Amino acid sequence: KMQIINFFRKSSRGDFVFSADRLIRLVVEEGLNQLPYTECTVTTPTGHKYEGVRFEKGNCGVSIMRSGEAMEQGLRDCCRSIRIGKILIQSDEETQRAKVYYAKFPPDIYRRKVLLMYPILSTGNTVIEAVKVLVEHGVQPSVIILLSLFSTPHGAKSIIQEFPEITILTTEVHPVAPTHFGQKYFGTD
């Protein structure tokens, strides 16, 4: 497990972004698998009929800025027309308390299933604040699916204690999380 974290620390930015995008795509696809769908018949360009599925209307993504924005393209690659909201939350370095600075959502978010995107879940404080903002906008925690690349056991436990109905999808749970993700992904490290 430390090999992945060391890879993220020591890799070139190009390798880092490539690997991060691959992990993002995997967790986004699994998140999409959790959304409700209906069966439908698809006619292929060659005229053949195929029994497939279609997402039910009423899904959206919400990225926790700035690192969560790295996950937006992976979601759009899978669902071109999905609506995406944003939340900006900054943590005080001394107190570790999270403060909401900005939130913009689709106006009917209270009727939607929400894929909440935040790649590195360390303490859980930022996600807890984001979920509180979503709840203030009428979103039930039971329809929120958190998409994360790495999570600490403490962070996941903190979120589940506060919001037991939320679903958390992550690629790895480990006591050490690569907290420099956003800086390396966007090239600001």
UniProtKB/TrEMBL annotation:
Task: Keywords in alphabetical order, please.
Answer: Cytoplasm, Glycosyltransferase, GTP-binding, Nucleotide-binding, Nucleus, Transferase
Boundaries of every Phosphoribosyltransferase domain copy? 11-174
Q: Where does this chain mainly localize?
A: cytoplasm
From the Swiss-Prot or TrEMBL record, state where the protein is found: Cytoplasm; Nucleus
Q: Please provide, alphabetically and separated by semicolons, the GO molecular function terms listed in this UniProt record.
A: glycosyltransferase activity; GTP binding
Taken from the UniProt entry, a GO cellular component term is:
cytoplasm
Question: Known Pfam families for this protein?
Answer: UPRTase
According to its UniProt record, which protein family does this protein belong to?
Belongs to the UPRTase family.
This protein is called what?
Uracil phosphoribosyltransferase homolog
The organism encoding this protein is: Urocynchramus pylzowi
